[in-house]
Amino acid sequence: MGTKPRPQDSLARSSTIVVVDDDEMIRDALSSALSEAGFDVALACDGEEGLATIRACVQKPRLVILDLQMPRLDGAGVFGTLQSDARLADVPVVISTAAPWRAPRGARVMPKPIDLDDIVELARAIR
Hints:
By secondary structure, this protein is an alpha/beta fold. It has 5 helices and 5 strands. A 5-stranded parallel sheet has the order 2-1-3-4-5, sandwiched between helices. Strand 3 (63-67), helix 4 (75-83) and strand 4 (93-97) form a beta-alpha-beta unit. Helix 3 (47-56) packs parallel to helix 4 (75-83). It is globular.
């Protein structure tokens, strides 16, 4: 007899994209572009708030966009925490940074400034 799926496993990935960046202008630009493309957007201004926002999602976020350098907890720290959480380890993550940085396994790096058309296209491609 098979194992009964847990509720969060049986649900399709949500349309929510979580943007975690300490720069308000960047958050606003990403939020506008993604909202206009039909996505729900949740915003956080630092890594700790970002983790709380991600964990509060009823369904797994479709995508998490993380700034690398932020106060309280940086993007690498948020990514590491997500990877160690069995429920959230498979959530797609984009880390945005102006500095050269090699993406850890399981993440994608997009250089700043992020091309809004590229991030919308990426979000649409996630199933």
